[in-house]
Amino acid sequence: MADQDLIYILTAPFQLQQEIRKSIFLAHAVPVYDKLQAEAVLEEFKVSEATHNCWAYRIGLNYRINDDGEPSGTAGRPILQVIERQNFDCVLILVVRWFGGVKLGAGGLIRAYSGVASECLRQAPSKLYIPRKEMIIICSFSDYNLIKARIGNYRAEITKENFNSMDVECHLSIPEEFYEVLKLRLLDLTRGQIIIEDL
Q1: Which of 111, 12, 117, 116 is nearest to 57 (CA)?
Q2: How far is CA 108 from the centre of its chain?
Q3: Distances from the Cα of 24 to the Cα of 30, 96, 98, angstroms
Q4: Segments forming the whole domain that contains residue 103
Q5: DSSP assignment of 172-193, as one string?
Q6: Coil vs helix vs strand at 61
Q7: What are the CA-CA distances from residue 35 to residues 5, 7, 39, 64, 178 (Å)?
Q8: Are residues 72 and 118 in the same domain?
Q9: Which of 27, 79, 128, 144 could form a disulfide with 120 if both were Cys (CB 3.0 to 4.6 A apart)?
Q10: Mind listing the pLDDT tens digit for each residue in 90-138?
Q11: Are residues 169 and 105 in the same domain?
């Protein structure tokens, strides 16, 4: 996987404040997973007394931007470009500006909004996003002990276990890249005596 294909997500909200030519810029970077959550975050962090509340978010293929009264293309789009350049997903960045009396011009605004958004995202706690898939397996007790000893090699995690008098039903979460390989390994380990259901 090439570096540009790697996707990062925030693990917690983060904020950063900078003064640029007497204006105060306060950036909030917040993880969001749907439009309603993004709207709730904006409602929570917008400052009505501030001069501008400019923002952008990206959730998968969906994105929105808002210049909030700044000249068109000088705030929301530069913020979105920062999100895309740093390969983030499921993130909203809101930059609140209090005007300090010095006009920055279009170029200055683009540099200010993208600069504070970029630094905020750079410092925010984040992790690599690893797409995962889930499967349900049903097997005997003896096979299950063998399976549990091996699945760690595939970074699989047990999310649920149900034991009954006959067998074990287990839910596994597996990184997408190991999914098919693990299925073949489970069939091999149990000599085909396992039921595997995709979720």
Answers
A1: 117
A2: 29
A3: 20, 8, 5
A4: 3-128
A5: EEEEGGGHHHHHHHHHHHTTT-
A6: coil
A7: 24, 20, 6, 9, 31
A8: yes
A9: 27
A10: 999 999 999 988 888 899 999 999 999 999 999 999 998 888 899 999 9
A11: no
Report the alpha-carbon distance of residue 98 to residue 105 in Å, rounded: 15
Residue type for 36, please? Answer: L
Helices (H), the chain: 35-45, 76-85, 105-123, 141-150, 179-189
Q: What is the pTM of this model?
A: 0.73
The pair of structure tokens assigned to 14 is 């983060």
116 with 136, same domain: the answer is no
pLDDT of residue 131: 86
For residue 190, which amino acid is it?
T
Residue 25 DSSP label: E
Looking at the structure of the chain, the number of domains it has is 2
Domain of residue 175, CATH code: 3.30.70.240
